[in-house]
């Protein structure tokens, strides 16, 4: 027998599912057929030892950047290959505090370099209207977030792929042993945050699984099982770069000490928003204003550039690092699949033609970033081709 709270949650999620699936019916009638995405190959060099981190930075959960026209269009003159490979180099932090720097070469990147990485498409500003000042940052109009409660939902895919990061952020399971999150949750661009010294990942456990009587579960919050992180990787594009530039590289990968037993969500190169089912993105996170609870939201993509996804999904600090996913057409399976296409970073004020526009922003998984993250996960280049 469901309690009143569980019944309300069930009705809300039923309504939510109807809202999600009804717009997809037309997409199912006319599924897209796209050529395979060209993914370059990352060739790593031998890692170079670095001095140990001081872990002196402070965690910044409410991450906000500003970007003007020159910042947004910075890639239009074309970047040199050396600049790309320097940003795709990465730093590895180990559990004992030691760290290394791995430089890379990029092969087969000519097409990606010009089409997907260095030339942000102009924001479709002609149809963007000035917005009124908001009372609370990252909440747009009526709050459209849903609390995920009850054993039947917390342990169900895709909600079960969301995990907590001990520094106060969110992450998403992308393999049996790896978690994708935002770089700013671990590193401020110059040094690792204090909490990264003993970084942990938290898995939600519904109260009833821990032996609590079923009749009392509705009043209790989920418990958390913490697992230590074995290794952390952060792209050089994030480290020691201006925030407006490095926001494009606000992602990091955590390797757990041992595999988990939960389903994970596969990665994908982010398609155009027009090729997302319903033009929608989704993500679940641990927003700071709803302590201890998993919060889900979805919204349409407002604008997009080569490296960022601009949207107005309601979010609060703590949601940073959430895996942004959409329903992407899988040519091999011939069906729509939920796949991680970005990482929620934070908030950005974008100044174009003298007009300030505010967005919540996710880092887009480009072909080059896909190749890099995939290498971090698999440790070899052979498995790193777009599905």
Dominant shape: globular
Rg, rounded, reads 20 Å
Query: Could you describe the largest sheet, including whether it forms a barrel?
Result: 8 strands, mixed
- Separation of the first and last Cα atoms: 43 Å
Q: Strand-and-helix sequence, N→C?
A: HHEEEHHEEEHEHEEEEEHEEEEEEEH
Low-confidence stretches: 19-29, 111-137, 214-218
Number of strands: 19
What is the strand and helix layout of this fold?
Blueprint: H1 4-21, H2 25-29, E1 41-44, E2 48-50, E3 64-67, H3 69-72, H4 81-88, E4 90-94, E5 99-102, E6 104-107, H5 110-117, E7 146-148, H6 151-154, E8 162-165, E9 170-173, E10 178-181, E11 200-205, E12 223-235, H7 243-246, E13 252-256, E14 280-285, E15 294-304, E16 308-311, E17 323-330, E18 335-352, E19 355-364, H8 367-378
Parallel strand pairs: 3-18
Antiparallel strand pairs: 1-6, 2-5, 4-5, 4-12, 7-15, 8-9, 8-11, 9-10, 10-13, 11-12, 12-13, 14-15, 15-16, 16-19, 17-18, 18-19
């Amino acid at each position: 027998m469901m309690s009143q709270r569980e019944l309300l949650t069930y009705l809300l999620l039923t309504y939510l599912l109807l809202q999600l699936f009804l717009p997809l019916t037309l997409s199912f009638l006319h599924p897209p057929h796209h050529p395979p995405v060209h993914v370059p190959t990352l060739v790593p060099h031998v890692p170079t030892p670095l001095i140990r981190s001081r872990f002196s930075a402070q965690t910044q959960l409410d991450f906000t950047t500003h970007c003007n026209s020159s910042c947004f269009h910075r890639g239009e003159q074309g970047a040199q290959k050396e600049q790309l490979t320097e940003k795709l180099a990465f730093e590895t932090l180990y559990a004992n505090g030691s760290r290394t720097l791995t430089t890379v070469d990029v092969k087969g990147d000519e097409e990606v370099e010009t089409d997907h990485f260095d030339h942000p498409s102009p924001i479709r500003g002609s149809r963007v209207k000035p917005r009124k000042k908001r009372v609370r940052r990252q909440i747009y109009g009526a709050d459209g977030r849903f609390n995920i409660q009850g054993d039947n939902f917390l342990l169900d895919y895709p909600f079960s792929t969301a995990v907590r990061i001990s520094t106060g952020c969110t992450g998403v399971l992308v393999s049996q042993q790896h978690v994708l999150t935002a770089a700013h949750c671990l590193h401020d661009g110059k040094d690792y945050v204090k909490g990264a010294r003993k970084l942990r990942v938290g898995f939600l456990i519904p109260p009833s699984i821990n032996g609590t009587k079923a009749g009392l579960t509705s009043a209790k919050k989920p418990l958390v099982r913490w697992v230590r992180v074995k290794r952390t990787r952060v792209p050089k594009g994030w480290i020691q770069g201006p925030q407006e530039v490095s926001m494009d590289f606000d992602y990091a990968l955590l390797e757990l000490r041992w595999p988990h037993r939960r389903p994970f969500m596969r990665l994908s190169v982010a398609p155009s928003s027009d090729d997302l089912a319903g033009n929608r993105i989704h993500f679940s996170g641990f927003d700071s204003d709803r302590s201890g609870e998993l919060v889900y939201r979805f919204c349409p993509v407002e604008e997009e550039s080569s490296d960022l996804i601009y949207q107005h999904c309601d979010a609060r600090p703590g949601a940073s690092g959430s895996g942004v996913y959409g329903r992407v057409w899988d040519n091999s399976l011939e069906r729509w699949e939920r796949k991680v296409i970005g990482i929620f970073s934070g908030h950005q004020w974008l100044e174009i033609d003298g007009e300030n526009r505010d967005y919540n922003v996710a880092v887009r998984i480009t072909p080059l970033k896909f190749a890099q993250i995939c290498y971090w996960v698999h440790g070899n280049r052979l498995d790193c081709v777009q599905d």
